[in-house]
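Let's study a protein:

===
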Amino acid sequence: MSKKYTLLKKNGKARRGRFVTPHGTIETPVFMNVGTLAAIKGAVSSMDLKEIECQVELSNTYHLHLRPSDKVVRELGGLHKFMNWDRPILTDSGGFQVFSLSGMRKIKEEGVYFNSHIDGKRIFMGPEESMQIQSNLASTIAMAFDECIPNPSTREYVENSVNRTTRWLERCKIEMDKLNSSQDTLNKEQMLFGINQGGVYEDIRIKHAKTITKMDLDGYAIGGLAVGETHEEMYRIIDAVVPHLPEDKPIYLMGVGTPANILEAVDRGVDFFDCVLPARNGRHGHLFTKDGKFNILNAKFELDDRPIDEGCKCPACQHYTRAYIRHLFKAKEMLAMRLCVLHNLYFYNNLMKEIRDAIDGDYFKDFKEQKLREWQII
């Protein structure tokens, strides 16, 4: 393929880009809708994702390896065919599970030994295994295998972990090149993103960013944030790292975050985002609107015949009232979760469209401040 990422415009540090992939073009900044097990929790289908203007779906390597297994997905033609989604898919590497399953794993130079969270079965995943699994899944973008470092961690621990993550990245790249050149590989154009780590130590982060930039990967992620540090610390690290990542490649902030986090990170040069927050909040009746968040279960909405967010074009707001959706929750009807997840994901996807328009129109700073005021954050 020719050049994949084109930086179309900058407004301050905010970047407006276009990323060409084997499964379609991604307009950035973009929010990836999280479907860990090849489905969005809350009974949201791939057809729904198109209706709510999702550009990229994200699934998880570790979870799909366990169930139904990457080999089953491969037999069925890869993840796109399996879940009936013809737009880009990014697969996380399993590296986050090194962090989230800390009580069930052991890290070695060769990789990580896990006990399955499903049945306790012993499994091993290293850089090569992660690339092989992601190749079987045939996602558009594969993430390199890394360790998501807990916060707080000592400087010594962080330095050792980052050095190992660099060695793992080198092994990922070699394995990915080998897999993409194999005759029976489903997606021979699978892309590889490397991950910057370093905890809250700016100098370690910067050194690592410079090191992985030399590897000329398809994109670069900033990992290991939103894991216990303050928002101010997160923004400080983004400010430190972004200038040392290549301007002609997409930059992805992993696992972040709130609408305000996204605005702040876009303002610092980030292109890609993902987070379980909108779907998780939706399943519990917590809804995002142009005026801020609210809980649909509150008694004051019992007779409220307005949509969730007046002016919103999501399927829930186009057809149902707050009173009805509240009733569905009280009656424990699954439709309640579905409608709220659809609304929240549409809110995020539409926010990204508004951000792109603001960068295109040279008014992103004003847009950001206006949104933070409307959400009663400033």
